[in-house]
Amino acid sequence: MKRLVAYDLDGTLAESKQPIDPETAALLARLTKVALVAVISGGDWPQFEEQLIGKLPDDTDLDRLFLLPASGTKLYRFRARWDQVYAELFSEEERKRILKALASTVAEQGLGAARSWGDRIEYRGSQITFSGLGQRAPLDAKQAWDADFAKRKRLQAALIPLLPDFAVRVGGSTSIDITRKGIDKAYGMAKLAKASGIPADEMIFIGDALYPGGNDYPVHEAGFDTIGVRDVAETRRVTEAIALCLK
Questions:
Q1: Does the keyword Magnesium apply (predicted)?
Q2: 226 appears as a binding residue in the annotation
Q3: Is 165 a catalytic residue?
């Protein structure tokens, strides 16, 4: 029996950079009554506050919720308020090296020429993320920009030899996530198992980027049970089925 259900955020629980919808939020609250629940995202803590925390119903059991921003390199728990349990941060030398590599490859591939809604490069302490159209781009523009992943796969291929000590992964609908090697969502799941006391075989992960190169794929590679979903609607169906099985 599964005792902990973990989710990706963008593309799984919510549309990219959008708030979780009321129906999905209600299902998540319902699930906290029968299981521990975790959310792991490439986004940083402010994104969790905007997309998730403020949208959960009052009957959500927050004590049974684990939040892991920046691909699992940070962990937050609720104890009368949301507290940070750990954070794995880049050194200044690592930060500068990644930003230099990103700036050069983005320029070489002409990816800085498109219209931008907000900053394209975001430093998240333990992760640096490139967003092709900026952090505040409208959903329709993001979905159209790189629907076949071609732009980001070219950027990923160019970055990997420049950053051999780091992991470079495709995430979200317009993003590339860069972390230290070994620091990914599988790492976050392992830390989650330790923090929750739940064995790995009693956990399951649900995400939309479980394909090779996707930022959810390391969870599958590490041997955790996973369920791949196409979109938020499928996540709702899966969540409802899990809640019924665990009731």
A1: yes
A2: yes
A3: no
